[in-house]
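Summary of Year 1 activities. Much of the first year was spent building the evaluation harness for sequence design. The harness presents a backbone, in tokenized form, and records the residue chosen at every position. We chose the following record to illustrate the format because it has been used consistently in internal testing since the harness was completed.
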């Protein structure tokens, strides 16, 4: 009795040709339609549950916080706000010592807080120094995961030579490959492999048969067949094959209709599954004899690893002694050339006896911790010196050159007569006067009372104070409103 739509079986990949299957057009599809990267590069994953004597930790448990930054225009920042006198660590020069985070009391407080925080952390590090291993240096990865075709799972640990990796793996329903190596998966070389497949098919009306290969760019398929009656022949990828099976008419790179025989070469341009299909659309049974020869390029070569097994669905518990110190990787690879399924479920248990105890890790970390402590000490000393330097560099009042005190004669209080509130304008030029003005700021005329202006003293242009009486001046004044002293450029 003929098979129903989509009934396929494994043909053994490179060892025995491609995967075989068949069915009736319009029936259910059992072939792989999942996409793949155009490069065909396997995609790796990791992150299995760590079974140790403490809580699990992993790369996905960390959070990232980006603090808000403040931007200053350098020219407008006070000198004591520049990086070498930053108040966040050196304090502000005008505030008491206890406001400085690293000065005297602040430094003592920080030392106490750091001690309360770091001492317990150092105690934990003594037993579990930043590692997945327990105190004896043993770590176990145990998990059940789903792999898609052309993916690999990996775990790794730092180990000493002579220590053991204990492993066991089960996969269902697909075959997988397993390897142990001291380099990452991306370092594996690739190679070329060839294979062939030949058989005789008997196709009744509306029945098809196919051979499936997963190939990458540069690969080739040589086909040669002859049939007892006219048939259709085409080469399609998974999506095209599915569309055709549903009654559509997709475009194929190789498409022969109503032929008795054909021979040709197909060049693979992208990485994916390729289906070589024979379909009998006629009423009578067609007997087809075919031969396929293929060359697969860019195939992952596991033979360079220290230990590997290809095309298995179960590996019993066993041990592997690592020959040298360093990182050792554990790979489970779902090779699409070995199985036609879309996904497979793997259950694995791998134990690393690293041979590196917590004491060994602590000794390795000691130089780093000592360096950190020394750097912190240098920062504190630098802060203390910066603090003392700030006190010596406090902002001072402007020391612009001024006339000698002997040349400056301020009018006595008895000589100053307050102007009348009714005198609001200068009697000479009519300029408005302030109630406390003694001389007109426009013409320099005396409002009333005394004559204190001296012609030998002239206030420099753009001065903020009068050179004679030290009174404040505005930008538009031509004469001092208190003593009438001329401002440079007033007569021009």
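For this record, the design step produced the sequence shown next.
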């Amino acid at each position: 009795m003929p098979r129903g739509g989509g009934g396929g079986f494994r043909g053994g990949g490179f060892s025995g040709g491609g995967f075989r299957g068949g069915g009736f057009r319009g029936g259910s599809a059992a072939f792989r339609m999942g996409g793949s990267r155009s490069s065909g590069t396997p995609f790796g994953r990791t992150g299995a549950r760590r079974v140790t004597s403490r809580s699990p930790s992993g790369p996905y448990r960390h959070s990232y916080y980006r603090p808000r930054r403040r931007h200053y225009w350098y020219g407008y920042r006070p000198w004591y706000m520049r990086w070498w006198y930053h108040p966040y660590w050196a304090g502000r020069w005008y505030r008491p010592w206890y406001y400085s985070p690293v000065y005297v009391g602040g430094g003592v407080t920080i030392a106490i807080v750091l001690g309360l925080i770091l001492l317990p952390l150092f105690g934990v590090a003594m037993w579990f120094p930043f590692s997945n291993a327990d105190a004896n240096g043993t770590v176990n990865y145990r998990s059940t995961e789903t792999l898609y075709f052309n993916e690999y799972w990996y775990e790794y640990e730092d180990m000493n030579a002579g220590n053991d990796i204990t492993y066991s793996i089960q996969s269902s329903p697909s075959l997988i490959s397993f390897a142990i190596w001291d380099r990452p998966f991306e370092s594996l070389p690739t190679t070329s492999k060839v294979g062939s497949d030949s058989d005789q098919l008997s196709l009744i009306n509306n029945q098809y048969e196919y051979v499936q290969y997963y190939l990458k760019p540069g690969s080739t398929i040589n086909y040669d067949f002859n049939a007892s009656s006219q048939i259709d022949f085409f080469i399609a990828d998974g999506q095209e094959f599915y569309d055709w099976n549903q009654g559509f008419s997709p475009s194929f790179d190789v498409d022969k209709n109503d032929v008795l025989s054909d021979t040709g070469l197909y060049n693979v341009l992208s990485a994916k599954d390729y289906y070589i299909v024979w379909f009998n659309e006629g009423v009578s049974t067609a007997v087809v004899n075919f031969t396929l020869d293929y060359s697969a390029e860019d195939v992952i070569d596991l033979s360079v690893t220290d230990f590997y097994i290809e095309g298995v669905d179960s590996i019993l518990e066993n041990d592997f002694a690592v020959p040298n110190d360093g990182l050792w990787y554990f790979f489970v690879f779902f090779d699409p050339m070995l199985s036609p399924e879309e996904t497979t479920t793997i259950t694995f248990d791998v134990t690393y006896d690293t041979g590196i105890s917590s004491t060994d890790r602590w000794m390795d970390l000691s130089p780093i911790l000592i360096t950190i402590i020394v750097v912190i000490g240098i920062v504190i000393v630098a802060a203390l010196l910066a603090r003392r330097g700030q006190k010596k560099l406090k902002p001072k009042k402007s020391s612009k050159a001024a006339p000698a005190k002997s040349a400056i004669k301020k009018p006595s209080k008895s000589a100053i007569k307050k102007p009348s509130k009714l005198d609001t304008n200068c009697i000479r030029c009519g300029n408005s006067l302030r109630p406390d003005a003694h001389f007109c700021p426009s013409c320099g005329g005396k409002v009333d009372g005394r004559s204190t202006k001296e012609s030998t003293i002239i206030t420099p242009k753009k001065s903020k104070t009068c050179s004679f009486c030290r009174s404040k001046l505005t930008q538009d004044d031509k004469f001092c409103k208190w003593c009438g002293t001329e401002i440079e450029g007033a007569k021009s």
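The chain has a mean pLDDT of 77. Quantitative recovery figures across the full test set are reported in Table 2.
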